[in-house]
Amino acid sequence: MGGLRSRSPTRLWVGILAVMILLLEFPGALHKCIFDEVQAQSRVVRAAGSPPNEPRFRAQTGKRTHHPGWRSSPLRGLTLRQRRSLRNMTPTTPAATPQPIRIQSWIQRESSSLSKTERKRLEAAVEEAVRMVSSLLSVNRVQGPLLLSRDVNKYCKFLWRNSSTANYNRCGRANNNYRSETCLDVTIPDDHLAGCDIYANADSPRRTELRPKGAGVPDTDFLLYLHVRDTDKCRAEPNVLAYAVHCRTDVHGRPVAGVVVICRGRLTEAAYSHQAAVQTVIHELFHTLGFSKHLFHTWRDCSSTSSGGSGCSPRGQVTHSDGAGQMRIYTPSVISALQKHLASSDPELGGPLENLDAPPGRVSSHWESRVLQGSIMAAVLEDSSTVRIDPVTLAALQDTGWYTVNRSQAQSLVWGDGEGAVFGSLSTCQDKSSYFFCTGSGFGCHYLHLHKGECQTDQYLEGCRMYKPLKNGSECWKEEYNRRAAEEDRSGEIFGFDSRCFFSSLTTQNDSNSVEGRCYRHRCTGPNRYQIKVSGSEWVDCPAGGTIQVKGYQGLVSCPDRRLCLYPDIAPPSDDVFPASITSDPGDTQTWSLLCIPAAVCLLAAFMVSYRKCRSCRIRIQTAPE
């Protein structure tokens, strides 16, 4: 679609002006994540009795090449035995009896000054995010109340280091300046913390209780501290809605506590979006639960044990560089998920990590945007209707070894679907061989066909270009735009819930019209089969991959192939942040029958399934007592 004819100069300047106005009206349209920066500044405390951290291996970058793809020796940093072991491994799920993770949220006392609107928005977003995450992840639950470990480096002045003494590695003298435990800027209540003792003599059992054991937090597997404040980071980054860290782990390395800071100013903006807020909280929660470069080296292999705990072995280094210098995660489930997504049997396909966030040879905690655009774990979350909880992200969480993941709930990741192993490489994104990328700066359709779009790039696309959705009339599903279309447009546009974007040059005038994205109604007649309806026309068959003429109009409409009537969970936004997922074969008759069910019934069914799975999950937001 890179050969679009340019608009006339007048229309082009009007379009540019509209984009500039939109950037002013929608400051939060792009939500940037600064997790890596914040986590690097935070201290993590492992539970008493934890084995020491596995060594942090330096990534093997190898010699970079100019290979057009990413298939050149990405495993060169491993021994032959390690390579064979990795390739022979198959994704397995521990045979234990994990249950949906119980996440309890705790609001700092300072947040009690929130207005009614702010609190309502916060609680609604957090509760929905927690409910979704709890329906996806299951753990071997904490027995009894959750108690967080204290930081021995804070409360203790020195440890007994002679291994022959009875009190080896115990605290010998208290730090008189010890006051409290913190997680980022949040003070952890003493009631949530384990006690600590001082052993004045190396061999004496006599001890002095420095701090008593707290009551703990019942029915909890992960404690989420919420801090609502306009911090310096919030003020410095206008596109940051929230950021997070994990600060405590259990004896198996699983994170059990973290903080999500919500930028307070974003809760009161006129452009506030509930969908965007929920997706941002889920994104930050996934970071704190394990999708973090600070935790990659602690992921565990539970393929040979029935328990996700002590029987698992450390995976060691899971990130390596491919021949083009792209850092990737090489774990069994991730490799399998990416192979399936890209329709490639390449055994060396790993999950690509964003290279803009990290120096060469280092890793980031986000997926590479050129390959996994639209993923919930991309570095930037764009329009909320385009964000997906994708199969590759869920595979990564499975490979942490801490969770059993309900991967059947993965949502369709349309970007790059079936495009092969070299999809998204810098050297191939501009050769016009892929529908997903574009060239120039024309106007067309976003790849989900819910929006009109403009061919643009950004720092994460690194020169590659795609049709990015615009606001202000580009949402095809918004029926309120019909009046303006009737008054100003001659291309037959129809806006509404069943309308989608099509590349079109239709016009009722005698002169030619440029090819641009236009909104027309559509209805499915089978997998990858549909009809369209233009203003004043009858329903017309639109053969996927072809073009059609419409009676009463000059010009053509292009019919996208494998984009419409193939992904039942791709739909306009609704009250549900994420539509129901369907992961069956698109050509399957049973899957196709779901396309004919009214959207409301599908959404209701999805809600009921999620509710039943999460009834046992304790979802509540507590405010710290005065």
Low-confidence stretches: 1-29, 52-95, 582-626
Fraction of residues in helices? 10-25%
Strand order across the largest sheet: 2-13-14-12-4-31
For the residues shown, what is the average pLDDT? 81
Shape: elongated
Please tally the β strands and state the result: 31
Estimated radius of gyration: 26 Å
Indicate the multimeric state.
Answer: single chain
Summing up helix and strand content along with how strands pair, one would put the structural category as alpha+beta
What is the first-to-last residue Cα distance?
A: 61 Å
Helix tally?
A: 14
Largest pleated sheet: 6 strands, mixed
What percentage of amino acids are in beta strands?
15-25%
Report on this structure.
With 626 residues, the chain is of the alpha+beta class. Among the domains are: 1-29 and 442-575, no CATH class; 147-216, no CATH class. The chain is built from 14 helices and 31 strands. The strands form 11 sheets. It has a 6-stranded mixed β-sheet. Strands 25-26-27-28 form a 4-stranded antiparallel β-sheet, with no helix packed on it. The longest helix is centred in the first third of the chain and has 21 residues, at 116-136. The N and C termini lie far apart (61 Å). The model is unreliable at 1-29, 52-95 and 582-626 (pLDDT under 50).
